[in-house]
Amino acid sequence: MNISHTAILFLLLLLLLLTTVTTLNAFVPLEIGPNLYEFGVAVNKGSTRGVVVTKCGPIGKQFDCILSLLMDFTESTSFTMFAMLVINALSGESTSVEIPGNPLGGVIASNYASLLEDREKRFYYAHFGATFYQFDAQLMNFTFYQRTHNGMAMALTMDDYGQIWGGTYPKCGVFSFNPNNTLLKDYGFVYNQTWDMYPRSIASDDLGFIYIGIAFTKSQFIALNPKTGQYYPLIDEVNRLDGTGVLYRDLDGAVYGNQGGSSIVYKMYNGTMISNVTKKKTAKVYLAGSQDYIYRYFQSGNFLQDFNAVDKTFVIKLSNGTLLNRDFTYSCRGANIMDMVATPDRNLLIGATSFPMTMFSLNGNPVQSLQNNPALDQWNTIKSVPYDSNIWIGTYPEGRLLSYSPSKPYVYTEIGNNRTNPVFIGTSSPHVNRPSCVLIHPNMEHVLMSGKPAYGKTGGGLLIHNRKLQNVIVLNHTQLIPYHSIYSMSSMKSSNSIIICGTTTDPGTGGQQIATESELFLFDLSTLNVLKRFKPFKNVGHYYELFNCPENDLIYGYTDTRIFFVYNPLTDSIIHNRTIDRIFVEQGPHSIVSHPKTNETFITSSTGLYKINPVNFSFILIFKPNKLLMFNAVILNDGFYYFRAGTEVYGYKLFNATFIDPVNSVIGMKSSVNPMKSGDRTVALSVGVANKFTLLIILLCLTFVQYLILA
């Protein structure tokens, strides 16, 4: 029998494809202490906070380049701008230039505004961590940086004289920088409110006056005279609207704007303002924008069609129309982990990160593997329970509720497409845009989601999904506890419709706090009424978590004031409370967990892992971490108690935990070793792992090839 070489080659390629498709990132965890293991960085990717294209290198040796400010996450400073990435737009070769000057961390650490000067397109400007930066594309380095008042720029602009101006969050500060003499002038804070302000737009008229648009609780325009340093608000208090003051510079030399989405147009010039003007918009273009800004036009005529910092790829459309696809590289410390839970069967860990927005999973024994998938929005809070096969997710910034089936393949969520997994259920914005809690009620009829409201708003709502009717209703804060947001919820075994809720008095981001003390309250799902409100503890800002303990049917909870308490639904009373060590939380706290085999209850504290005595509620120390800031609590059937610290997942060997070397567990396949670094430690091996079905297909293919050759 004559068999063509083409047929044999086709079968061999099919064999190669099958073995490639079944490749997983499997690894043996690294033991870093007695029974303590490091499972590695959950999502080893950074995110970009501003991208521009220009020419890099000295004159005569310049090349088309991409400049991208990169952000990752560290325990000490939270989100961190760690490098300016310089990429050769033709070759993909990249260099990371470290951010100098030790910018401050915390809430002002991220970059929210970028500006590329539009004359030579040589200098790129940014301000974050209370530090102003100038990056020189010719020298491919930072050539100026200087500390300012405490803040980060929310908007940058250039005046007609070439000076750079910025307005900063959270206290509305202003600074200017003169590139000619590298003089930075700090005007300090120019407006005072009781809430954090977002100066999301800034503009200069042709006389040099500076105008700043304020968001979110109340709109406002601020004028600043650079010659005298005088500054003042332009909108009378009674005329301020909720929302954002938006500005732009027009080609006629004046600045125009509106506030709170109103159609009324304001004209600002020479430090004064008139309202109700009619003007066709002819905006002057600046190469500036927010954290998502991308400037795509090369001076050579090429065009940056796509830039993906997560996948580390970009596409250039050359001036002749040809598309150029390139990869690039950078190293980072990983993304911030928002939440982690066990799947309902307790065999997988499911988690999510922010910046980039990514879902990750970790399977237990016999072979550990971390996998990443892109996520719709930021998964703020994730919830699963043993009595429901689905996992439920609350996302920021639209307050979306998603339902994920871990037994089915992951398919990126598309709104309106019920074939995706997770699938979109409903949205609750503006009443909830930053979810903190999802409750899967054991009546299997309701799934609830709560959290803080939209930017500038005060008082969060409650999304209620009726699974039988397949509908969603959203209550606002006036139908619950006015000016509070529900931060935690729990069902109670004693009732099929009454739940207990814990609130926070925090407003939405950039909003104004009105209520002074958080509360607990009982809510009836059958009538949608608040039954009882009570304040068992003073000065509480957050009731972080409420947990229905399966050992005794009591409700455990803890507060931001470090009070652990126990609520008895049968007696409707707090039966225990005491001061505890700090508990580290993200926006959707999950620090209490039950054992999958015994129902014993554990809690993750800043000082270690504890078992909670179900009778006297004492904390029994299981292990004490060594310089690890522990978040979350997940126990899988593999015997590990998982938690996260920084960007990494760790596991404490709680019971019956064993490892199978993934190299030796692969039947008939040769493994390839590719170290994945976490700090200075190798934490993973990349190996091919084939399931039984795939192995069967491979053996059949090999048998068929042999038959064809011998026939």
TrEMBL record:
Q: Where are the transmembrane segments?
A: 693-710
Question: What are the protein's UniProt keywords?
Answer: Membrane, Signal, Transmembrane, Transmembrane helix
Signal peptide positions are 1-26
InterPro entries cross-referenced by the UniProt entry: Quinoprotein_ADH-like_sf, WD40/YVTN_repeat-like_dom_sf
Q: What is this protein called?
A: Predicted protein
Task: Supply the source organism for this entry.
Answer: Naegleria gruberi (Amoeba)
